[in-house]
């Protein structure tokens, strides 16, 4: 299955829509498990536990120019924060956005982008990392409005 995303150059790029939904499925399943009362996992550590579970299914790590470049800083910022909920979430989202933005300057190591020659091209941010960052940003913005 292929999905078309517009790039800044206004040229469409065909992106495989298989990897990212699988990553989300594994991550969200592990995260939902961390929310069970029987796990005794604090709310702010649940995302990092889910990320650890995801690492069992993918070799992707920070710096590989994948969705992990946004998820890892988000989860880490939450897990090691000891402030009020809203400021912690805002900081974690900012970390995710910054992580996604850094992918623009990374050489892809995994996925389809790893097979594309990058010499003489301007790289754009990894679509998965940027998508996760914006998803988290929208979630927190919506929650903060309440």
How many distinct beta strands?
2
Q: Summarize model confidence as the mean pLDDT.
A: 81
Question: Could you name the CATH topology?
Answer: Serine Threonine Protein Phosphatase 5, Tetratricopeptide repeat
Radius of gyration: 16 Å
CATH superfamily: DhaL domain
As laid out across the biggest beta sheet, the strand order is 1-2
Which structural class should the secondary elements be placed in? mainly alpha
> Could you name the ranges where pLDDT drops below 50 across 5 or more consecutive residues?
1-17
Look at the structure and give the CATH class: Mainly Alpha
The helical percent reads: 40-55%
In terms of DSSP E residues, the strand content is 5-15%
H-E string? EEHHHHH
How many helices? The count is 5
Between the first and last Cα atoms, what is the distance in angstroms? 37 Å
How many domains, in number, for the residues? 1
Q: Which overall shape is indicated by the principal axes computed on the Cα atoms?
A: globular
What CATH architecture label applies?
Alpha Horseshoe
Give a quick account of the main beta sheet: strands, pairing sense, barrel closure. 2 strands, antiparallel
């Amino acid at each position: 299955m292929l999905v078309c995303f517009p790039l800044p150059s206004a040229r469409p790029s065909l992106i495989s829509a298989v990897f990212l939904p699988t990553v989300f499925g594994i991550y969200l399943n592990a995260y939902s498990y961390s929310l069970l009362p029987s796990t005794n996992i604090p709310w702010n550590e649940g995302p990092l536990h889910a990320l650890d579970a995801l690492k069992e299914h993918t070799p992707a790590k920070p710096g590989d120019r994948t969705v992990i470049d946004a998820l890892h800083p988000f989860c880490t910022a939450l897990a090691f924060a000891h402030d009020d909920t809203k400021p912690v979430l805002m900081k974690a989202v900012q970390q995710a956005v910054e992580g996604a933005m850094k992918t623009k300057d990374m050489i892809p190591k995994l996925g389809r982008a790893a097979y594309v020659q990058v010499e003489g091209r301007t790289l754009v941010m990894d679509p998965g990392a940027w998508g996760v960052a914006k998803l988290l940003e929208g979630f927190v913005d919506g929650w903060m409005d309440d």
